[in-house]
Amino acid sequence: MGQILIIVGLVIVAIGLLVWLGVPIGRLPGDILIRRDNFTFYLPITTSILASVVLILIGMLLRR
What we know:
Blueprint: H1 2-20, E1 32-35, E2 40-43, H2 45-63
């Protein structure tokens, strides 16, 4: 359990560093953004797929 918490913490720190350095996480090509007068709709399709792939790879590494 402790090893999983350390890995999760390191992943959170890595994501925080990427955001701090200006990597556009959440504004990738393929994400849908619709802006109207009083309405904004955001659907992060590409970001969701990328997050899913990363989580799957982490899960596969933890199972070994």
